[in-house]
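The protein record quoted in full:
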Amino acid sequence: MGDSGHIITLTTDFGTRDCYVAAMKGVILEINPEACIVDLTHEIGPQNVHEGAFFLKGSAPYFPNGTVHVVVVDPGVGTDRRALCVEADGCYYVAPDNGVLSLVATPERLVSAVAIENERYLRPTVSGTFHGRDVFAPAAAHLSLGVEMSDLGPPVHEMVRFELPAPTASGDGAIAAQVIHIDRFGNIITNADMATWNDLTRSGKGGDVQIRIHGLVLSRTCKAYSEVPQGSPLALWGSADLLEISVNRGNAAERLGAKVGDLVTIQVGTR
C-alpha cells in the first residue's frame, strides 16, 4: 500500500460534541496504533449525502496515494444498503453504498470495489445504528495494515451513484445553472463551469455577460474578492473551478436568500 497507507481520514456528519468520532478513532488505533488519523470534517449536514460527496470531491484528491478515506454520512445505517471499500485514483474509500462516493469514484477513476462482509475485519458485535465504529473504522484500520481489499468481501460491479446536475440551455442564448453548494462563508457555488462559460461567450452576439440570481445582476467575473468594495456582491471562479456568487467580506446566501437548487441564469446581452 505504500508509505501513506497509514493515513486514515475521517469525514462524517457526526459533529464533535458526542462520542461518535472518538469511538471510531479508538477502534482504529486499537487495530493500528501507528495510524495517522486526519479529521477532514465532521460538519457535513446531517444525512446530507450530496454535501458529503461534494466535500470529498474538493478534498480527497489532494492526499497521497495509499490514503484510506473513511466516509460516514449514512442515513441508511441498519438497512440492507452495502458497506463498500473502493479503490479509485490510488486511494481507498470505506463508505456506505449510498452515492456519497459518486464524485470521487467516477467510472473513469474507479479501479475496483468490494462489499465489506468478512466478519474477521469487523468488530465482534455490529450495532444497527453505528456502522462507523463497528464496520467502517475496523475495515479501514485493517486495510491500512496491508489487508487486501479482496479479503474484505466479494467484488461489487455496480454502485449507487448520482451526478451533479449540468447547466442547460434555456433559450435566447441563456444558460440555466443552479446552486449546488453554499459554504460556511455564504459563498453561492453553482454548477456552471469554465467550459459552459466559454461556450456561451463564444456563441454570444455581443454585449455583457449577465449573471442573474434572485434579482441580482452581475456583468463580469472577478479574480479576487478585493476587486469590489467591501460589502459588494461579485461573481468569480472558485477553487473548484465553478462559478460562485459572493459578497466581499459578507454572506451572499443570507443577503439573497439563496439555497441549494436555486436557479442562476447566465446570458450574453440584455434580456
In short: The two ends are 56 Å apart (CA to CA). Residues 65 and 147 are 16 Å apart (CA to CA).
